[in-house]
Design brief:
The protein has about 325 residues and is α/β, with parallel strands linked by helices. It is built from eight helices and ten strands.
Amino acid sequence: MQDQKVRILVADDEEPIRLICDRYLTRLGYEVDLVENGQESLNSLIHNDYDLVLTDYSMPDIDGMQLIEQIRESKPHTAVVMMTGFGTIELAVKAMKNGADDFVIKPLDFDQLSLTIERVLKNRELSDEVRRLRTVNKQLEELEKTKDKFIDITGHELRTPVSNILTFAELMLEQEGELSPEDNRQFLSVISDSACRLKRIVDDMHSSFFEAELNAKLNIEPFQVEDFLEELMQEFEEIAKKRSLQLSLHFPKENGQWEGDRLKLQRAVRELIENAVKYTPDNGRIEIRCDHTEDRMTIHVVDDGIGISDKDKFKIFDKFFEAQDSRHHSTSD
């Protein structure tokens, strides 16, 4: 408010009151607009931002009380001071209960009016600062939760592939020249798969943090849905076999070509399948089903796992949110 003039809207159906308020408040350094009824007030508020509205209670069409209610709905941070006569002080008190910041009594004492406006604007400034600090504090709390969850999930997700790489690399070094070609291929396959998994985890974390900020654009191109679904099936085939999971894929024969961001869609479906694998008990069933209408493709991932509770469904797009503890992976407990 110190860097620019405070804008005040004066609403009163009596022209002498409007003119004298304009003259006095302008002399005090305020920027003043005048309207003569409630409807004009609302129209002016739609097109302008005011720091304070000084309104009479008794006006044609929309009275001061109705105007306050409208301001609180559409411009909640705008201060409101009610002007009222001696005989309607109880209405002024009611107006404050309904959202007015203060009131002044007619005939106006301009020294009192000046003090009231200064006090109301100062209180508004302080309340805005408190609101801002509360918002910042809430953001810091959310950031701390995100950091803790990030550490928890990355600790779990990264541990297995890192451990596999180290273990099989050490075995190959220790038994160099002693391993059969088949053993070498198997060990290198485990190391390669684990490295790919690490890269995928890092890419996903990077996207989670920075994609929105960078305003990443979709790379729209034509593709065959069954192609990337079959790639995903191959990706999870080995772990499904180890845990005796029945992994199946179904899509229409007449699937055709679709347009979209193939990599982002594939990543999203991979997350669904990976979660299904994590939380489906051994010997369970995971089915990827694809169906479509003329202009819409739907991909379903159905499993025998523990599912997600109704209360957690609203959080599934939160960064790093997991509905179940990672210790329950593959157990369905």
